[in-house]
Specification:
This protein is α+β, with helices and mostly antiparallel strands. The protein has 14 helices and 21 strands. The strands form five sheets. The chain has an eight-stranded antiparallel sheet with strand order 17-14-16-15-19-20-18-21, sandwiched between helices. It has a five-stranded antiparallel sheet with strand order 7-8-12-10-11. A four-stranded mixed sheet has the order 1-4-6-5, with helices on one face. A hairpin with a 6-residue loop joins β2 and β3. α7 runs antiparallel to α8 and α12 crosses α14.
Amino acid sequence: MTETYTRTATSPWPNWAGTVTARPARTVSPASVDELAEALRRASEDGLRAKPVGTGHSFTATAATDGLLIRPDLLTGIREIDRKAMTVTVEAGTPLKRLNTALAREGLSLTNMGDIMEQTVAGATSTGTHGTGRDSASISAQIRALELVTADGTVLTCSETENADVFAVARIGLGALGVITAITFAVEPVFLLTAREEPMSFDQVTTDFDQLVTENEHFEFYWFPHTGNCNTKRNNRSAGPAAPPGKVSGWVEDELLSNGVFQVACALGRAVPATIPSIARISSRALSARTYTDIPYKVFTSPRRVRFVEMEYALPREAAVEALREVRAMVDSSPLRISFPVEVRTAPADDIALSTASGRESAYIAVHMYRGTPYQAYFTAVERIMTAHGGRPHWGKINTRDAAYLSGVYPRFGEFTAVRDRLDPDRLFGNDYLRRVLGD
């Protein structure tokens, strides 16, 4: 390896939320698949474990290592757009925002995506990043092929027709099977979405939840704890014309209220928790109804500048409303003061072994706390409710579940661990987090 892409770590690596700090013995930024394979070979010879990192948007320690930290900075860009197959092949370190803007320039788009786009494509898919959708599933479910460098340096191309057993599990692989170097996504001609954002009462949105999900291609809502208020968002395909938010009104909603004022409110709530219920009542009324139409990534995604910690569980869709009502009752009867809204989204069933929507229609309940605020009591209480409903924790978000629990809620858990045992028997890609959630 050359000094142009290898360096000895001199400082810790923190994740975005500050919940994880890694202190690697060595850091590399390989510029090619061959350089990556050589870095893995040397790590193995030196007795170092190896982990790739993205932009650090996971709240868990899935990417933490005290051995070799692999940065994907130089593995970026689009390799190929195949308009006949309607796919795009992209290097693993490419941020989603670069992929989305590049596809838009080509008149193309992913079908669905999450609500932020700072992550790398490999990091987002490896942890099961998702948005909300009645018919369209997570980003990982849009993968048609991937390239994976395994522990012994073998480069595997995986798809439904090539190394299909690996493909079945590696689309959400937690970094446990190898290092993804490229991903091929299904794409479609760029389209327009009309977003309708509207306040709604907690009682109304929970009563009409099934109808709202059925009638809209993409439905989600946010409940503001300590209030009976929610904000709903419905995204549906549109014939146009495009009608994006005005520059001033868009800035007021997305930057001033959702980031600037919200940051101040959260900081005040952290300093004086007794003010949080009053702030929540004001915040829940600050965002007004609006409708706009734009290309997908400009509707699905939003800037998120207020830092937080998060727990999210996927439940059988039919259990979501009951579980959310239990969360509300728990908050109302406790001394907890919660400044962040609770987010609810949905996903159709998919066929990925460790997908949170594997084999079942799912609804997601996500809880957040402002960074620096004690979150353990709140998350523990919420997790107790979620697990009572057979919940599956998001792989990149805070949870306390272990392999004994997870093997019971994932019918194909053993299929994943069997492939892992074959590809990485010596656990080159292991760490403490993976030991907890996957076992030894």
